Amino acid sequence: MSTKFEQTVMYSQLQPWSMAGAPPCMEPVSGPSVPPRVGTSYQTTHPHPWRPTLSYEMIEVKNLPEQPVTNQLVKPCFAPTGMTTEALTFPNLVTGFLRNPQHAARAALYTRYTFGEWNNNNLTKYAESNINRNQSERIRNDAVRLMRETDEKTSQGQRDAGRRLGERITDVTFWRNELNTELEKLISESSAFTELKRKCGKANLDLEAPLHIAQECLYHREGRGGMEKVHDSVEKALLLEIDNLRNSRQRLQELHEKITRQANDCRAAQHLLEEDVTHKESTLGIDSVCHQLNNYSRGIAYYGGIEKYDPTVSTQESWAEASSQRVSRSQAERAKLSQLRSDAETTVNAIATSVWDYWSNTNNALDRRVQEMAESKNKIQLHLHKVQQELFDLEKHIFLLQKAVQDKANPLKVAQTRLESRSHREGVELCKDYAQLRLIQEVQDIKDVVTSLHTKLQEAEAQHQSLLKTRSTLEADLRNKVNALFIDREKCMGLRRSFPVNNMIKY
């Protein structure tokens, strides 16, 4: 008995479908649980120790409690009189004999079944046994068919899932390769940013020296004096050159900012590509492991309700569209970078050419201005030499005029002395003779001559002062011209010749 009971228990443990309910690992996520085949309400409370639990056993009949007739929810204390049932007592041969022996003996004689009832009961049991066996056989056949169908359906579903995983791995690998290719191209193109920024920075830095020199030339030319502070072609060329240099630096600064913004955009596109590649590498690892899993793999386990949890954030189309958009953005950024590199080279070359043109125009204007001032200086020097010679001659003439005036003093003295002496004549001798008239005429002539000499002397002295003023003006103008010529030829041209602009503009 004990061995047979142990075999029965072992067999029931090896066959999960013979147990009541489902095994712990197959507990359903939601819905009612599988009802047990042998319920706890049908099992005996005190099974025999030498055999397993039975599904039936004689039980002791107990009296039913008093209940309200109308509604079971009504408490008996609130029920009216006559609405409650009396407690029922079922007869029992053992307990009833003690209370009423005659009634118990009479019940024992008249409570037996008839033979026909016994036969009918046996036929009923046979029929029920046949029905239950047929139903059990049908259930077994249905179970075998269902097991085969479920096995085939499970295998087919697993094969389809594996095929889908393989297709997914192929798609992810394709996009991973596309992203890697685009990432390599973008990284190779992005290496040009350093060279572009270096050229732009060098060009902007190289423009500082020409701008400083042009401003220094304007500052030096402010030191010119007098009429030499003329708004000539050199000053116009310097102002145009300074304006061009400032505009060029502004253009280079805007180009540098544009390069910086494009570099940030390319780095953002590169970050998106790297992030997408990283995610796809991780996905490939996960999908490869999932594709290699089978029924005998290690690490498989139950995850109740995992199929009802949807962690996805995209569909197949949106997933492919996201990768395509990142590749398209990278391609667009590369195209912008190529265009920016071309524009930067064109801009730098154009700026270099314009700087050289304005620099050359200013130098040519300075050369022409230096030649003009040198010629003017030579003419001023020539005029100054002539004025100096004229001053020398005029001074000699003034000396002669003064000497001529002085020479007229003695003849005037002689004539006046004669007149004074003849004024001492007496009597009729004070005659107005021809000698007296001639002496008077002589004195008058000498005075007229002296007056004319003094007039000429004054004119000569006034002209002498005018010549001195002219000489002073010419000397001051000559100094200004010499100073302006020194500024333009030595300071400005010296500064501009010492700076090799033709080497600076070759990028």
Automatic annotation (TrEMBL):
Coiled coil (residue ranges): 235-269, 443-477
Subcellular location: Cytoplasm, Cytoskeleton, Cilium axoneme
Predominant subcellular localization, coarse grouping: cytoplasm
Any single GO CC term annotated in Swiss-Prot or TrEMBL for this entry: axoneme
Superkingdom, taxonomy of origin: Eukaryota
One Pfam family from the record: Tektin
GO BP of this protein: cilium assembly; cilium movement involved in cell motility
InterPro entries: Tektin-like, Tektins
The keyword Glycosyltransferase is assigned to this record: no
Keywords assigned by UniProt, alphabetized: Cell projection, Cilium, Coiled coil, Cytoplasm, Flagellum
Family listed: Belongs to the tektin family.
Protein name, per record: Tektin
Gene source species: Glossina brevipalpis
